[in-house]
Amino acid sequence: MKRVSFVAVLSTVVVIVVVLSSEVPVAKAVTCNPTELSSCAEAITSSAPPSSTCCSKVREQRPCLCGYLKDPNLKQYVNSPNARKIVSTCGVSYPQC
């Protein structure tokens, strides 16, 4: 009987160690900071295509776009035709806020 209990406890410990040591994907929290999109300034103010850095930042800041649209100081930029083109070119859907 003691042997069975030892095996059960040992098995439980092994399972716990495996579960605790396995990598669990953790979502990275996005810090909404419109200056992160500064690499898109040229593409927003001209007809230049967005850079890869710009697209990376647009994808990173995607959860923040609705907040930027609600900000009277940023809305004109985020809602501009060039900004919409950038979002589309970068493969990000324009937010429906």
TrEMBL record:
Residue ranges constituting the Bifunctional inhibitor/plant lipid transfer protein/seed storage helical domain according to the UniProt record: 32-97
Name this protein carries in UniProt: Bifunctional inhibitor/plant lipid transfer protein/seed storage helical domain-containing protein
Keyword Kinase applies: no
Keywords associated with the record: Lipid-binding, Signal, Transport
Source taxon at top rank: Eukaryota
Native species: Acer negundo
One GO term (biological process): lipid transport
Leader sequence segment: 1-29
Pfam name, any one: Tryp_alpha_amyl
Record field: transmembrane: none
InterPro entries documented for this protein: Bifun_inhib/LTP/seed_sf (IPR036312), Bifunc_inhib/LTP/seed_store (IPR016140), nsLTP2 (IPR033872)
SMART domains: AAI (SM00499)
GO-annotated molecular function: lipid binding
